[in-house]
Design brief:
The chain is rod-shaped, with a radius of gyration of 62 Å. Strand 4 and strand 5 form a beta hairpin. The protein folds into four domains: about 80 residues, Immunoglobulin-like (Sandwich); about 90 residues, Immunoglobulin-like, CATH 2.60.40.10; about 35 residues; about 60 residues, no CATH class. The protein is an alpha+beta fold and about 375 residues long. Strands 12, 13, 14, 16, 17 and 18 form a six-stranded antiparallel beta sheet that branches. It has three helices and 21 strands. This is Allergin-1.
């Protein structure tokens, strides 16, 4: 049996040490890394506690320039922490859905969104993180608002000899409430903003003197949408003088119509008897006088039959047709005369000629 000498023991111990040294080095390295990690964790925890205690790392702010939007509107959301000395990781959420993550130092995180339907309204929240220390912002929500339509302006005027009492009424029939109304004279504001939480007109009263100038008024309607204000059509009050009377025409018109009706009635009563008399005279006149044979021609005239009238010698009896009888008992007739022509021996040139004209003159046309 071989005995172990001192040299053998020494060689064995050297070999054992050579085998254990690599494992020990790895263990030492691993332990050192764990120690460093634990130190970093402890340091981070201490830093987070210190920042929270000293308010060095406050909660971030989440905001937008506008909280009221219309459908399809583009908006921007910004998340910002007041700590500008550290690198901060920002995360944006809508409900439980993660939307965006950005690293910023000294500047905010900005995200552009399009609000199309109700789920895009929110709620939104932002998370700011430094190492293992993080904080959340308050929730933010958008609100849908319907824009106002152009309002309608109505004006009522009460006129006196010296002043005009004017009532302005303005209403927008569409748009989310509340709505603020403002009245203008031309481009000058004449009223404060009048807010209406119900769908009713805003009213504003003012008094003007009768300066003789027409004045133009309009009103503005707007709700919480800042860039959607609408204006009414301008309304002008006609110019008036100091002695004007806007009610005079309304009072005078019925009087004029009454006077006109009285005049028409008087004319009708005055002309009706004459019309009846003329119609009666026309009805008494024979319509057909017959065809009378005439040798040369027929001459007619109208005369009055008087007592004691003598006939003209040489003329045939006159034929007459009665026409009408007046109030004195005299009647008007149409007389027909048939002249008779005879052949006469020619006379000297110096002697006067006797013809039909002379016969007519002698008869004096007693017709």
């Amino acid at each position: 049996m071989r005995t172990t000498t001192g040299w053998d023991l020494e060689s064995l111990s050297k070999e054992h040490l050579e085998l254990e040294s690599p494992n020990q080095n790895a263990m030492w390295k691993k332990s050192f890394l764990v120690f460093l990690f634990s130190l970093s964790v402890q340091k981070a925890a201490l830093d987070c506690k210190r920042m929270r205690k000293t308010n060095e790392f406050p909660s971030p702010n989440l905001h937008s320039k506008m909280s009221t939007v219309v459908r399809g509107q583009n908006v921007s959301l910004s998340c910002f922490s007041e700590n500008t000395s550290r690198q901060i990781t920002y995360s944006l959420f809508r409900g439980e859905k993660h939307l965006e993550i950005q690293d910023r130092k000294g500047e905010p995180m900005t995200l552009n969104l399009r609000i199309s339907d109700a789920q895009d309204l929110g709620p939104y929240k932002c998370k700011a993180q430094v190492s293992n220390c993080f904080k959340y912002s308050r929730e933010f929500n958008f609100v849908f608002v319907d824009p106002v339509t152009a309002p309608v302006l109505n004006i009522s005027v009460i006129q006196t000899k010296t002043d005009q009492y004017i009532m302005l009424r303005c209403i927008s029939f569409n748009g989310s409430l509340p709505i603020n109304y403002t009245f203008f004279e031309k481009n000058i504001t004449i009223s404060p903003a009048i807010s209406k939480d119900v769908r009713e007109p805003a009213e504003f009263n003012l008094t003007n003197n009768n300066s003789g100038e027409g004045k133009e008024y309009k009103c503005e309607a707007k709700n919480t949408l800042p860039d959607h204000a609408k204006y009414s059509q301008p309304v002008t009050i006609p110019s008036t003088g100091g002695d004007s009377c806007p009610l005079c025409l309304q009072l005078l018109l019925p009087g004029l119509l009454l006077v006109l009706m009285v005049i028409i009635l008087i004319l009708a009563l005055w002309m009706l008897p004459k019309y009846k008399a003329r119609k009666a005279m026309k009805d008494n006149v024979p319509r057909d006088y017959g065809n009378r044979p005439m040798e040369i021609g027929i001459y007619a005239n109208i005369c009055e039959n008087q007592a004691g009238e003598e006939s003209v010698p040489g003329l045939e009896p006159k034929q007459s047709v009665p026409i009408a009888e007046d109030g004195t008992g005299h009647s008007q007739e149409i007389h027909y005369v048939t002249p008779v022509f005879r052949q006469v021996a020619p006379r000297d040139q110096g002697e006067p000629q006797f013809g039909i004209r002379d016969a007519i003159k002698m008869g004096q046309w007693s017709l």
